[in-house]
Amino acid sequence: MATLLYRLGRFAFRRRHFTALFWVALLALAGVGAAGAPVAGNSSFSIPGTEAQKAFDVLEERFPGASADGATARVVFKAPAGEKMTDAGNKAIVQDTVGELSDGSEVARVTDPYKGGGVSKDGTVAYASVSYQVSGMELEESSRDSLETAADGARDAGLTVEIGGDALQAVPETGATEIIGIGVAAVVLVITFGSLVAAGLPLLTALIGVGIGVASITALASTLELGSTTSILATMIGLAVGIDYALFIVSRYRAELAEGREREDAAGRAVGTAGSAVVFAGLTVVIALVGLSVVNIPMLTKMGIAAAGTVAIAVLIALTMVPALLGYAGRRVRAAGEKGRRRGREDGEKENGTAQEKAQRQNLGTRWARFVVRRPVAVLLLGVVGLGAAAIPASSLELGLPDDGSQPTSTTQRRAYDLLSEGFGPGFNGPLVVVVDARNSDDPDAVFQQTGDDIKALDDVVSVSPAAPNKAGDTATITVVPDSKPSSVATEDLVHDIRDAGADVRADTGADVLVTGATAMNIDVSQKLNDALVPYLTLVVGLAFLLLIVVFRSVLVPLKAALGFLLSVMAALGAVVAVFQWGWLSGLMGVEETGPVMSMMPIFMVGVVFGLAMDYEVFLVTRMREAYVHGEKPDEAVVTGFRHGARVVSAAAVIMMAVFAGFIGSSESMVKMIGFGLAIAVFFDAFVVRMAIVPAVLALLGKKAWWLPKWLDRALPNVDVEGEGLRTDADKKGGSPDDRDLVRV
Question: DSSP label at 363?
Answer without folding.
Answer: S
